[in-house]
Amino acid sequence: MKKVLKNVSFVILLLKICIVFGQETSTQKRIVIDVGHGGKDSGAIGVNGIQEKNVVMDIANAILKLNDELDKPLDIYLTRYVDTLISLSDRTKLAKSLKAGLFVSLHCNHSDNPKARGIEVYVANTTSQYSKDATWLAFQLQAAFSKELGFETRGVKFSNFQVLRETVGHLPSVLVELGFLSNLDEAQHFTQKENVLAIALAILSGLIIKK
Fold first, then answer.
1. pLDDT by residue (tens digit) across 137-182?
2. Distance in angstroms (rounded) separating the CA atoms of residues 107 and 71
3. What is the pTM of this model?
4. Which domains does the chain have, with CATH numbers?
5. CA–CA gap between residue 17 and residue 10 (Å, rounded)
6. Is 191 exposed, middle or buried (0-12, 13-18, 19+ CB in 10 A)?
7. Which residue, of 50, 99, 107, 120, has the greatest Cβ tally within 10 A?
8. CB atoms < 10 A from the CB of 25, how many?
9. In whole angstroms, what is the distance from residue 184 CA to residue 48 CA?
10. What pLDDT is stored for residue 149 in this prediction?
11. What are the two backbone dihedrals, phi and then psi, of residue 89, each rounded to the nearest 5 degrees?
């Protein structure tokens, strides 16, 4: 039976994550969230006209807002805060210069097949001392999206994406494809504010849970 995206109860999800945050006792983690595309690069265009660059910006801003409201359990930096195009190399240089503990690149998917759906999380296809942590985080994010939001999981995958290739030897890094804008159900899901908040909260919970 086809999995249907959930209209998540934001209050219930927030209560869950507050429990997780309340159990966190380690030092604050510094995280760089790479907000994909921007400026003249719109990324994927949804069947309903939404643009990937705007979807991931909305989610990143929601993550920042939630982190502030929860007394900043994470030290978060974005690779862009406005609609501008930042080179891939500058995005990875930021993470390395900040000596971040995690790098998470946010994107949305697209396919010629309108039935294609689900979330994919990528890690680098080369190994380093950080590969194990990156792979664990990828599975953690997959689980959060599937269990809490109802996204189908398309598996943790390995790739040579530039942002992964340039960070693999410096810190754990993942690239998240947050569903297909070419799928009407998933594209419509991103247009609702409560769903954007729930996605942001699911990401936040995945980032703070300790191994």
1. 999 999 888 887 888 999 999 999 999 999 999 999 999 999 999 9
2. 27
3. 0.89
4. 30-208 (3.40.630.40)
5. 11
6. middle
7. 107
8. 6
9. 7
10. 83
11. -65, -35
